[in-house]
Amino acid sequence: MSCTFEQHLIDETIRFHGHSCPGLAIGIRAAEAALSEMAGVGTADLVCVAETDMCGVDGIQYLTGCTYGKGNFLHRDYGKMAFAFYSRKNDKGIRLVFRPESRGELDGEMPALMAKSVEKTITGEEQERLQQLRQEMQKRLMTLPIEELFTVQQLHERAPRPAKILESLVCQDCGENTMESRTRRFSGRTLCIPCFAKVEQKV
């Protein structure tokens, strides 16, 4: 089944991200699945935990209202194409894990061409082929049924707690205010993380 978001919302999401790409399509479909599964949960109670920082997170932020600034969008740097959504209203949660096989046969050519593009060794003909493959992949990802795109896992743990306002401490090296939970102690001094990294050494 094709993506159920109205086209104007998809277009706005693309403008927000800056371009259209397969990664953004994955995020759009993840947002679609989350809003369907968590119907009735307002943006104040919805929380997303992304296990990647790829293009799709922009789609999720734009379409769900989960944002870094509100503290209800969290990034866990696990390197997985997975997104967990929680309701603080009723402790309901789901985790969507992207299914690599959903890329189908189109994924056969793309990795090598993308590597050439990054290395700037790609020919004009190959660049055209890569663009064609990306467009076909986007169309595929936007039209496959959700169950073919993601494995959906039900979560039973509580949503991550809301952000707390903590005291700021002055780093005794650079003199900048730093949130207390992000400071480090070294040789009896309170340091911010960058200043701590300058002096702390591991063998």
TrEMBL record:
Q: Which Gene3D superfamilies match?
A: 3.30.1330.130
User: What is the protein's species of origin?
Assistant: Desulfopila aestuarii DSM 18488
Q: Where is the Formylmethanofuran dehydrogenase subunit E domain?
A: 16-151
All copies of the Zinc finger DksA/TraR C4-type domain together span 168-201
Q: Which UniProt keywords apply?
A: Metal-binding, Zinc, Zinc-finger
Q: What is this protein called?
A: Formylmethanofuran dehydrogenase subunit E
- Pfam families, A to Z: FmdE, zf-dskA_traR
Q: What is the lineage of its organism?
A: Bacteria, Pseudomonadati, Thermodesulfobacteriota, Desulfobulbia, Desulfobulbales
Q: Name one GO molecular function term.
A: zinc ion binding
Domain of life of the organism encoding this protein = Bacteria
